[in-house]
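Lab notebook page, bench 4
Experiment: in silico fold of construct C2
Operator: M.H.
Input chain length: 469 residues
Purpose: comparison with the prior construct
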Amino acid sequence: MAPPRQSPPRGPAPGLAVALELLRAFLALLVVPVHLAWHVVRAADRQREVAANLGTSAEPTPVPPAGPARPLRVFVSCAEASGEIHACTLVERAPARLGAAVEFTGLGGPTLARLGVRIVGDPVSQARMGLRVLGALPFYLRLLTGAARALRDERPDVLVCVDSPALHVPLGRLARRYGVPVLHLVTPQYWAWAPWRVRGYRSAVDLGLSILPFEVPWFAARRVRAAHVGHPLMDRLADVPRRQRPVDDGPLALLPGSRASVVRRNLPWMLARLAEAPPDSELARVRGVVALSRADLADEVRARVADAGLAQRVDVAVGDLHAVLPTCRAALAVSGTVLLDVLHHRLPMVVLYRLESRFELELTRHLLTVPHFAAVNLLAGEPVVPEHGFAGPGPTGVVAAELEGLLRPGPARAAAIDRLEAAAARLGGPGAIDRTLGWLAVLARGGAGADVLGARESAAAVNEPARAR
């Protein structure tokens, strides 16, 4: 167990600090209707701003020099399994990249703990979304209180948060109360639907790291320090082989999502496109494969495939997505990070985002301030793949026709594959985690890089006496 810093704790009691964050969140909820109304009024202007930023250079922001190497104490936090993957890569690479011993404490799951991180709370196993967070509020209050106590008493050199702004914005503010600088990997997509939340983010982080190139100017315009590091997924994909061109005679990949509710909403609609295709169409002849990352959903998915009358045509593959995608010729996918996996293999795709109700659809149309929602289109800055957001039956005939064109060898399929190259080039190569560690060193060690960053003096001033001891 890490001993506390040899200096008196500074800042409010952890319980009081967390209570103040809860009060702040409650007051913010009260004014959401005002923000929403103003957002609807300004939505067109904001959409034009995002569209203009899409052409921003895809080159990562150069990491400036940090101060001399010395042992570091780092508090690392992740709230979901996807973020834990990136946090684990960061922990594994830290000693070599930082050139000194690094002691990690943090919030995370068993995977992070197995790497030697001293875990003070596990939000990964309790991950919640939407209104379900309210039922777990006591858990999250205890979690934040424990984290605040560690931040106050042990005074780490830096807090590194990975994704999940719902947890990490309040955690970042707690850290800054105790003089700990905050680095956040994966800047929130406030530019897409909730720009008013950037004020709270600005008060919670010293530096936000973006994975999409066009985010940096958006945050800079709102006085948030941000740097582009590239997408951490590319570190993993660097070792994943791919074909020069996708096969022309493989199955259609069906990618209905990873959350149970999303799979249940989208998979039956996807299967119906195969079941209802005209007998003389390529869509009626092609085999399908549902690729799943979660084994606990496999039996339910197989039952839905059988209910659609497709048990003899559609396989269910559980496990490594990249063992499946190279065998496929095209994909029908739910919008999400999985699109970047599909992009890696240059698979022509149709993207959908099926909502639960028409009310939700109308709300989304008024809130979104992006010209596209599929990550591939955002990267390219233009619609290189078809995307459809809808509720109810949706554009069944349109999607079927698009898939037909992508499945048949010919000019339409070849052009679709070529367009994916532009998006892939914008995504960049590996190195995001190493660049993140470089920025970590700048925040933790100061030096010339701190002058470039313009980091707050208060965090360093609070921590320096403790380091001297």
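Observations: Residues 32-53 form the longest helix (22 residues). The domain at 252-427 is CATH 3.40.50.2000 (Rossmann fold).
Next step: discuss at group meeting.
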